[in-house]
From TrEMBL:
Enzyme Commission number(s) from the entry: 1.8.1.4
Signal peptide, first to last residue: none
EC category: oxidoreductase
Reactions it catalyzes: N(6)-[(R)-dihydrolipoyl]-L-lysyl-[protein] + NAD(+) = N(6)-[(R)-lipoyl]-L-lysyl-[protein] + NADH + H(+)
One Gene Ontology molecular-function label: dihydrolipoyl dehydrogenase (NADH) activity
Protein's name in the database: dihydrolipoyl dehydrogenase
Location (main, coarse): plastid
GO terms for cellular component: chloroplast stroma; mitochondrion; oxoglutarate dehydrogenase complex
Family membership: Belongs to the class-I pyridine nucleotide-disulfide oxidoreductase family.
Domain FAD/NAD(P)-binding: 83-413
Organism annotation: Gossypium raimondii (Peruvian cotton)
Active site feature: 534 (proton acceptor)
Amino acid sequence: MHSICFQATGVPRSNYIFDSCSPALAISKPINLRFCGLRKEAFGFSGLTHSSSGRVRFSSRGHSKKVSASAESNGSPPKSFDYDLIIIGAGVGGHGAALHAVEKGLKTAIIEGDVVGGTCVNRGCVPSKALLAVSGKMRELQSEHHMKALGLQVSAAGYDRQGVADHANNLASKIRSNLTNSMKALGVDILTGGPQKVKYGKVGFPDNIVTAKNIIIATGSVPFVPKGIEVDGKTVITSDHALKLESVPDWIAIVGSGYIGLEFSDVYTALGSEVTFIEALDQLMPGFDPEIGKLAQRVLINPRKIDYHTGVFATKITPAKDGKPVIIELIDAKTKEPKDTLEVDAALIATGRAPFTNGLGLENVNVVTQRGFVPVDERMRVIDTNGNLVPHLYCIGDANGKMMLAHAASAQGISVVEQVTGRDHVLNHLSIPAACFTHPEISMVGLTEPQAREKAQKEGFEVGVAKTSFKANTKALAENEGEGLAKLIYRPDNGEILGVHIFGLHAADLIHEASNAIALGTRIQDIKFAVHAHPTLSEVLDELFKSAKVKAAALSHGPVSEPVAV
């Protein structure tokens, strides 16, 4: 018997520990999940028991503690296992996998040691969108020029900090409840751990084991804090703390100018803060298409109360105390020579996220993480140190590091479910869109222009670039929001879409026509015939595709093959 131990520790999230008694998992043997994490109400726990209805209950000193829902739609368990599928982590990725698994008739359980929804719902994309909604409204109301152009007169706009914070918290609570209810309605068994560590799995307690034919690791990520930075949660904070909006500092330094840093700069400046970016690379917004990045800097950075230091590392950050400000020591990223010292009211560490995989016990199944990420192949199957696949074990989302986006995790989970139900499926990561919810928004899918040109040089094809401006779009002008650009990167020889990048009003919503085209292998010469309602922002994409110059020879070719990025 091989087992996985789910063990809740004294931190707000739970650990899930693999406890294998032999070097590798054998296909012919059941994979077990040893469930050790209990809430403090269950200290008298004597094991997991199953009722005739399929419910899982904690037996506690003669009383049972129901921790899951049951419905006929959650398939019957296989004869040799309690479940067809167990998912470790109830974030967006785990939730998407669970719902698809039930739809496919799999008996499914999901394990969460913290709260349903994971990072995205509770400490990430959901509450941040609530704050950004407020910042968008504030920007509009504060712009006298914008209001005057629309013929509107508005008195000075203000805000209630606690009210804004409550809006973010209430949204997270609502979405968390929605996710929980959707799983319960379908009968997904939700097994919960908690902050108390209960040592279990000893001889004499066989009821502690829950078995599954297949297991998905979906444990997500946590904010990455570089060495030398002391986080106190008050004046030196991560995104987890910032989303609570416990204060709006007069001057805040943001370390990192990627998605997280950009979005928070939008929030803080709209609420009256001055912002200083600290970026290790030579330019702001690394990772964005350079042309889009330059335009975004001109609109999102330069006119606002934002300054920046590029090409520097923050080697030491000391929280404010005893009347002293936050102190940030900077060094040159290349020479490592001291560069500057900043004194600010607060510092937000937005240097990315790290996989939450410590304590899984993966070494017991001969798996070694790479910078914390669980190694997987293009089908999300876990790979051991010898390069072999670990049977029946998968990893999705931030924990595998392929694409650290909530919707990517969900797509990976759905892909895994397709595989375990007999249909081979490989997710095309180049078709997965991304968005930054600043004002205006930035969105993208596929390759940047430099990436496309590098690929073209290696593979011997030509690259075409087409662009359209929001200034030519009727709906954008009606909204007095003509600032923006859409960019298409493509192959003129066959009409293949390599990448699309948008900066402008509702860019995050517009990108999906392009991402779906890439996913379906739709050629530019075909999508040109799609009809768009007038006047709508979608016509930005319509004009973009129509402006591309595809060679006549491509018109007689069949659909381009779907590219697969692993």
